[in-house]
Task: structure prediction
Amino acid sequence: MELAVSSRRAPETDATPEGLSPRQMVEIYRLMALSRGLDDREITLKQQQKIYFQVSGAGHEALQVGAALALRPGYDWFFPYYRDRALCLALGVTPEEMMLQAVGAATDPASGGRQMPTHWSSLPLHIVSTSSSTTTQLLHAVGCAEAGRYFSRHPEAAAKADGDYRAFRDVAFHGDEVVLACVGEGATSQGEFWEALNTASNRRLPVIFCVEDNGYAISVPVEVNTPGGNISPLVANFPNFHFAEIDGTDPVVSLRAFQAAAEHCRAGLGPAFVHGHCVRPYSHSLSDDERLYRSAAERAADALRDPVSKMQMRLVREGIMTTEQIEELEQSLDREAAQAAARALEAPLPEIVSIPEHVYSEHLDPTSSAFSTEPAPGAANGGKAKAAGPRTMVDLINACLHDEMRRDPRIVVYGEDVADASREEALREVKGKGGVFKLTAGLQTEFGSERVFNSPLAEANIVGRAVGYAVRGMKPVVEIQFFDYIWPAVHQIHNELALMRWRSNGAWAAPAVIRVPIGGYISGGAIYHSQSGESFFTHVPGLRVVFPSNALDANGLLRTAIRCDDPVLFLEHKRLYRESYGRAPYPGPEFAIPFGRAKIVRPGAHMTLVTYGAIVPRALQAAEQARRHHGIDVEIIDLRTLNPYDWEAIANSVRKTSRVIVAHEDMLSWGYGAEIAARIADELFEDLDAPVKRIGAMDTFVAYQPKLEDAILPQPATILKAIEELKAY
Ligand SMILES: Cc1ncc(C[n+]2csc(CCOP(=O)(O)OP(=O)(O)O)c2C)c(N)n1
Ligand SMILES: [Mg+2]
Result:
């Protein structure tokens, strides 16, 4: 559309008092007014029950248009908030695309009808899919900035490669790219806000944090969320930052602030923090009525600061537009919004059959035989498997990490204590730490501190950054030090990592690997160093869950996990790390095991025992006693991967034996075995000669005193008793 500019000023050449041309001022206003018009149109549609949710960007338009115009869509990277309609509009998301989101159309480019409206995503514009979880996106932005910097310093790492996840994603990067991450003032109370500032500051990352401060988080005023009522003084001592606290209802002030912030970031000086004060004239969302908790005087004061009406008055005052021209423009924007809505309402809706699409990668199937290779003992190797002969699980996991890092320059390893020594000068005289269990020993020494480094002691930080790294095409292989401390990261795993592909309808994905030492049987591990809990994670669509019971499986499954195009939770049993059970010679750098293939670790005719992890050696002991003392012949199936799991192996065995026990270390109630037992009862009822039996820990946490631990966790004797009972049935 040709923008109308008042004849009192030349559109391109006259400078306004702000130093922008009249045409630029009109364009800023157009974007702000169109954003407001789209909100108004959506509100009408919601009232007509043609859409199902509405949250507006009203009152934030000036700040956001300023941000967008200072940055480069498709070059810089964007992690917006749900209020960021004006930002996304100014970056290039069209009104029709916005309306397609609102109606939940199949052609909604952000999510194909899966996410609420204003949950932005655009691959070409570099707007990374964000969730409804406030604040998680800030850590993604940090990881994204780290990945951009890594690729700029190592452009060769961006090359595509066959045979793994790298074949399916184009990598784009620029040495001076900037990442914008937006958040509300209420959401700065989340720990992840501080975790993001921590790493951005420490690593001098080019992230602009934009706090859109409208004074409320739904009904909670800012002073309840933020001590003193203002976030700016609280963050002011973070090193390396550029700070600006501005009137976010003024688009020119906003533009200038973001230009200065971007300059600081592009120069490599560190992150920036732009705190914009704005207003929220339309309540929190259409489900909220702010008259229930805000005084009339307060609302009236806010109305005077409405950025759209302030900008109108300014254009008239400065002779840039006449009131008639403004009216004309408004009418044309109204028509544009109405036409966008009309087209979206005609758009096809998503098909029911499409629901499972993009839960997992459509490109690379980790259950495929491409991942089935034979061990090649005797191959040369670094890491802990250098020596010949049987090696422990620690050795062979460490060897796999060494091999894969050599093969794939996109792998980074970080977590708590995983580096050999963060202070590099110490490395010359010390042996190095390499993880509390030594799984990552020697990696920093071989691959350098850019690829192997310690994280802050913050689990959400570890996983949130991994999401950001992975969406850029890198392969973070991170460690959570103990399963017992995975819980701060669960928000990121459940709502972000596992969901990135499905919620963006396949546009984005976060195929990171999270390695986690898990489990008990360590005498004295107690409550906080013995936890299991794998079924929390097998209940998350989009997440692969692996649980090896021996050194060779750990090596081959970790290789598949790293090459895989899906996020993987790789559970390593601490008790099995150095056991003499399950040691194996180093199988060479290409040894892989497909997911979803169980292993029959002991063939048998009388009953089936389905298990995994540290129960495998205990079940073998029990089965041996059952044979010796009672002549009972138990077939033991080690599932090896829990999602996907090998139903065929279970079904074939149960059809043969007609009796089955499902055993695991985790608590019995609601445990992983409940699902397997229920499916056996459902699908194999005709084949059974006895009820399905389950074995698990007592429904308590694990106690410190070994006498109690022994009683809480299943022992070989517990398993033997169950075998005897089932045979007698
Ligand atoms: C982690 C999380 N907790 C709670 C919510 C529910 N919720 C959605 S918006 C919101 C308030 C956010 O306030 P603020 O960050 O100030 O943003 P604003 O809506 O004011 O722009 C809350 C509590 C959520 N989406 N995510
Ligand atoms: Mg707010």
The chain has 24 helices and 19 strands.
